[in-house]
Design goal:
The chain has 274 residues and is mostly beta strands. It has one domain: Thrombin, subunit H. The protein contains three helices and 18 strands. A hairpin with a 6-residue loop joins strand 8 and strand 9. The termini are far apart.
Length: 274
């Protein structure tokens, strides 16, 4: 029985756990290695008054699953952020962490990677088969088509009622969820993508994939990373007292930073390091 989305695409989501909090991310395979991509606020607490960013904690774990749908044990990477440098975009809500360098390919086309200092795992010793978004699956901002179908990958942790026993929860919060929507529009001034798809707490940093129908074949492309939802703001004014009560709700639309912005950022950071 065929699946609507390829197995390797379903293994892209990464659960990020840091300082008692969690968010979403994904691995992106650049030319020199694999990078963890997420939203900046997943890893950093923002001090708006002083315009400062502070890491929620000095250690973080990245959990993901292999492309084998029968594999139930996640691949867990532990990152010491005192040894691993986190790069943050100067404009967008984006953070990247280089986790490994590519050593060689297996006969099946999988990269055998070697972790950089500060990244460890208990599962497979020093080598790890990563499942990241390849460069040839990344769609440029200029090529993104409004109205096309999209999928949001992530770990929304604000859904459901969190019970003390995992068995009592409706959701398994250690497994990713998909959400289907469309590309609602593009903001050319900000160079961002607007999606018609609800974004919840925990989805931040998650990957968005576009599905394109070519003849009778479905093709999937990485669009970018979820950074926030667009609020619906309603002001209610008292006619008697003149007071205003503001209600802010989730509009069902979200903002995505395109993947080519992330690739440009990675390239600039590489050039600055040489």
């Amino acid at each position: 029985m065929s699946r609507y989305i390829p197995d390797d695409n379903l293994s892209y989501p990464v659960l990020i756990s840091i300082g008692g909090r969690s968010g979403s991310g994904f691995y992106l395979n650049a030319n020199d290695g694999s990078y963890l991509v997420t939203a900046k606020h997943v890893l950093f607490e923002e001090d708006l008054k002083n315009k400062k960013f502070t890491l929620w904690d000095k250690t973080v774990t990245f959990s993901s699953y292999s492309k084998d749908p029968t594999e139930k044990t996640p691949l867990v990477l532990n990152a010491n952020l005192e040894l691993v440098e986190v790069k943050t975009h100067p404009v967008f809500d984006i953070a990247i962490v280089k986790v490994s360098i590519f050593k060689e390919k297996t006969p099946e086309g999988m990269w055998i990677t070697e972790f950089i200092d500060g990244i460890t795992t208990k599962q497979i010793g020093e080598k790890h088969f990563t499942v990241g978004v390849p460069l040839n699956s990344c769609r440029k901002y200029e090529d993104i088509q409004v109205s096309n179908e999209i999928f949001v990958f992530g770990y929304p942790n604000s859904l459901g009622i969190h019970e003390k026993s995992q068995e009592d929860n409706e959701l398994d919060y250690s497994r990713p969820l998909l959400r289907k929507g469309i590309i609602a529009g593009k903001n050319d001034l900000k160079r961002t993508i607007i999606i018609d798809c609800p974004i919840y707490q925990g989805n931040s940093g998650g990957l968005v994939m576009e599905c394109e129908q070519v003849n009778f074949e479905r093709k999937f492309f990485a669009l970018g990373v979820v950074t926030k939802f667009i609020p619906f703001v309603e002001n209610m004014k008292s006619l008697q007292y003149g007071t205003v009560n503001t209600s802010i709700e989730n509009s069902g639309y979200g903002v995505v930073v395109p993947v080519d912005t992330i690739l440009e950022f990675i390239q600039k950071e590489k050039q600055a390091a040489t």
